[in-house]
Each structure stands twice: as C-alpha cells, then as structure tokens.
Amino acid sequence: MQREEICKIIREDTCKCIASIGVGHIGGCLSIVEILVSLYYKHMNIDPTNPHMAGRDRLVCSKGHAGPAVYATLANKGYFDKAELLTLNHSGTNLPSHCDMNKTIGIDMTTGSLGQGFSCAVGIALASKLDKDGAYIYTVIGDGESQEGQIWEAGMFAAQAKLDNLIAFTDYNKMQIDGNTDDVNSLEPLNKKWESFGWNVVVIDGHDFDQIDDAIANAKACKGKPTMIIANTIKGKGVKYIEDKGYGNHSMPMLWEDVEKYIEEIRRA
Amino acid sequence: MADMEMRAVLAEQLKQMMQQDPKVVVIDADLAKASGTWGLRKDFPDRAIDVGIAEQNMVSIASGMASYGYKPFITSFTPFVSRRVCDQITLSSCYAKQPITIVGTDPGICAEINGGTHMGMEDIGVLRSIADIVIFEPVDTVQLKQALPIIAGLGKTVYIRLFRKKIDDVFGEDYKFDLFKADTIKEGKDVTIFCTGIMVQETVKAMDLLQKEGIDAEIINVHTIKPIDKETIVKSVAKTGCAVTAENHNIMGGLFSAVSEVLAMSMPTPVLPIGVPDTFGEVGKMPYLKQIYKMTAEDIVAKAKEVMKLKK
Q: CB–CB of A127 and B65 under 8 A?
C-alpha cells in the first residue's frame, strides 16, 4: 500500500481513537502522520512481533500528547489489536493521552512533560553509541515544546557528543495552546538556532514523503552531527474543519457524528 | 576520623563497579572534582561523561540510558539534583520506571561557605513524595562502601544524600549493611533517638552526655528514609515511649516527618525534632551552623529530656 493510503487509515484511526473518549489532542496528532508513517513503514529497523528487539531503531515522541497518532500507527503495524484504539483514556486503558512505555507495547519512552523526551532520546543515542549497535534514534519534538529550556540543554549536548545516530523532527505547525507560536514566544529563526547549536539542519514540508525521505537520507549521510529536520506542517492536517480551528485544535471535542464526516473527507482526499 | 573522604570511597567503589559491569556509567554536571568522580574519566573515557551545567538534561539523559540497560550514577550538589530536577526525577526516571542513582553531595549545612543558595535543606522532603524512590543517607565510609553495589543492583531510582569529606566512622569492620533495615547503634529504654547522616556522629557524642545524666537512650541510625524501616521504629518506641529525631534537613518533610508518619499510624507517641527549623541556610562552618540551628549534642540531650516529660 502506498504511504498516502496508509496515512488516510492512520488519520481515520486517530480520529476514532480520540472520539472514543470524546475529546483530545487532535491537531498535533494529525500534523505528524506523514512523519510517523514514513518512519514506521519505511525507515525504522523494527519488528512488531519483537517490540523489545535489541539494537532496533527507536522513536521518542517527545511531544507526548501526540500519543493517539503514535498508537494508531503502532496498531496498524501490528504491535497490538486495533480494537484497543477505542480505549483511549478509558479507566484501566493501556493507551493514556501521553505516551507511556510501561503501558503501551511499542512505545520506546514515556513522555508528557515537555522537553524531557528529547533529553531521554539523547541518552538513548549515547547508549546506542556505547553499545555500537548501529541503531538510529528518532525523536519528534513540538514547536511549542521548543520553548522549554531543556530542549536547548539537550540540543547543545547532542552536538557536543557528535550524536549522528540521532535524527530529530520539529513538528513546526506554528501553533500552541495559547495561540500562534509567533504571538506567544516566537522560535524564529528556528533553522539558524539549530545550526548555531551545531546541528545538521534540513527544512522540509512535513507532509511530503519525498522530502521526508531525502531529509532522513541526508541525516544518515551526515557524520559527526545530529540532524534536526524542521518539518513545516499544518496543525490538524487532513480535515478542513479541524485545520480551520487554528490553535483551537490543540485539544478539542471529537464527537462520533462529526468524526464520520471527517473520515469521509479523509477518504476522499 | 576515617582515612578516606566519603567522595573518595564513592569514586573507588564506582571504579570497581565500572570494571566489573560495562553498563555502569557516571554522569556529572561540571562538579566532577567536587563529587570525587573526576578521576574516572581517565579509566573510562566513554562511560564517565560530563553534560555541563544542565542538571535537568542530566537526569533525563540518564533515564534514557537506563531504558537501554545502562546503570547511570549522576552527581552534583544536593539542591541541583533534587529541587531543581524534581519533575525530571519524577517523570523521566520514577514514573517511566527507568532506574538511576542520584548522588547529591553537601546536603544541608554541609554546604558551609557556599551558603544558603547551595544548602539543600528540603531535598528529602521534595523527593520523598515521589512514588517508588529510595532515599538513602550514609553515615560513614563503612556503610557507604557496602551500600553502593547494593544500590547499583537494586533496579530502583535511588537518591544518595552524601556528605563528601572526611568524617568519623561509626561502624566497624564487622558491620553488615542492609539497605532496608535501620541500625540500632545502642539499645536503651528511656528515649529513642532516630538519627541520620552527619547527625549520627553528633548523636553518638550526645550518648555519653545522656549517660552522665542517667538517661538510657536507644540510638537508631535510619540511613534509608524511604522506604523507612517501620518495624524497627515501632519496636523501639514500644519500649521507650518517646523519641527524638536528628537530621541535617528542614524538620518539615525529612526524618522527623517520616518517623512521625509511622508512629501516627501505628503507635501515637511524643516525638520532637532536631534539625533545621524551617528556615533557609546561610554561610558558615558546620560548628557555627549546628549551633544556630540547635543541632549540637547538647541540644539533642535537652530535646531528649523535653520529650521524656511528654511521656504518659
């Protein structure tokens, strides 16, 4: 199946997952679907039948609130039954809003307090280097998350340690809970910031598969530096009503009758 | 006085553990010399790492390494690896179940001339409310030496509250350490004194003064404040009927609170605290600071007499 078609399924399942509890972080889930599908369906060395495989590539979704999109991807890859997607945030669930490595099969690191997952990914990349296992450590950080000081502590040290096995994405949808990032606390010039921190930087359209592939190839070819792929994305990508909500889509109600309409639109695209 | 500084024992034990176990790593945040871990870089250039002055990053990096099967020891001054990194210890390590060992040096008044900004008076209180963490405050080189390999193999997040310089040994070579068992240093029947860290040596000094006053005190070293050895505490107080706690920490949140919690639930008993009286630290040498916060052997004696009057 083409990645475009897989993305439609992941978007549909993410919407259903959040609808199962009626409200959730839909905007920042839909913005990273092409990135997740590219990683899990093309680039990552993983085995869903052996989720703890030594030396596997790992993903730390540091913007932990995008859990539902990661869960939809993991379920479709066969890490767990898709029916479980409809238990998001229900009492006793294995799928909490924010990624939890001790609850969900396939989640490589617990995240939710912003900034910390990125540092954990740096630690994982260091450990992989010590093990000399050749793994690539992928991480996705949010743009709002990049206002956390810990992001820059981790960024500085990843360059110092020459972690060229660390490939990071910034989900640059330019929105956060309280408004547009430029109105709250602008990240610009984001590419220059990362360059000045000693990173290899690639700026792409985060919904374009070819650009994602090229950026990962570029990252793997770059020796001695970690890579930051600044992925320009649209928060709520794929459903016009959600996109039009702007930063209001960070967390919003998702009712089944609306989700049916969203799914029709996703399938038509 | 012991021959070795506590930090030298730390370094020696770490070196041995790193030789035996390729998964042990040490991470510093620009205080490797103060922590005594500097020399490990020569023997283990890849596994003795310095992340610079970025303690929050250090805790989460260590947690990430733990998720890869590594056993990280991280070090800094007490306040910078407790109150500054509370959320990172809570989520990256404890909640995520990624065990790391945190070594906080110069606790409480031990920060001396670094002064109030560097005095962790509240670290036990801050960390004790994090579920599943272990909090250990060693007394001397004998105890520390035995404790470190046990802690490395525990599979839990452990906070070690470490006085880093030379201090009198309390325990002899025949001492057998149990991380979860408090040590009865002297048995007695009139009052129990629960003490930890540098206040154990102060309590040992008080022991002679108490004896001169005809008070038969039971002295118990509570080296592990969480999980606390409830059995030993309750058993002792059942005999003595009252207790004093002695700690180098704010009297709120630390040993006094932990012992009082146990007794409130199992055996309501008068308990009075020796410790920092809910105030910030200030520049000074330890003898001066002990004096102003009423943490001397004489203060312990006075507090023991006071609490004995509260006995029913």
A: yes
What is the residue-wise DSSP string for chain A? --HHHHHHHHHHHHHHHHHTTTEE-HHHHHTTHHHHHHIIIII----TTSTT-TT--EEEESSGGGHHHHHHHHHHHTSS-GGGGGGTT-TT-S--SS--TTTSTT--S---STTHHHHHHHHHHHHHHHHT----EEEEEETTGGGSHHHHHHHHHHHHTT-TTEEEEEEE--EETTEEHHHHS---SHHHHHHHTT-EEEEEETT-HHHHHHHHHHHHH--SS-EEEEEE--TTTT-HHHHHTGGGGSSEE--HHHHHHHHHHHHH-
Chain A, 152 to 181: residues with Cβ < 8 Å from chain B are 153-154, 156-157, 160-161
What's the whole-number average pLDDT of chain B?
97
| A25-60 residue pLDDT tens | 999 999 999 999 999 999 999 999 999 999 999 999
pLDDT digits (tens, 9 = 90+) for B82-139: 999 999 999 999 999 999 999 999 999 999 999 999 999 999 999 999 999 999 999 9
What is the β-pairing status of strands A179-180 and A175-176?
Answer: antiparallel
Distance from CA of A44 to the nearest CA of B (A): 17
Say how far apart CA B123 and CA A13 lie, in whole Å.
45
ipTM greater than cut 0.95: yes
What is the pLDDT at residue A54?
Answer: 96
C-beta of residue B103 within 8 angstroms of C-beta of residue B10: yes
Mean pLDDT value of segment A92-98: 97
How much is the average pLDDT of B239-255?
Answer: 98
Domains of chain B: 6-162 (3.40.50.970), 183-309 (3.40.50.920)
| pLDDT at position B281 | 96
Contacts of A108 in chain B (CB under 8 A): 67
Which residues from B are below 8 Å from A101, CB to CB? 67, 96
Judge: B64–A115 Cβ closer than 8 Å, yes or no.
no
**Is A151:A87 a contact under the CB 8 Å cutoff?**
no
Domains of chain A: 3-268 (3.40.50.970)
Instruction: Determine the pLDDT at residue B39.
Output: 97
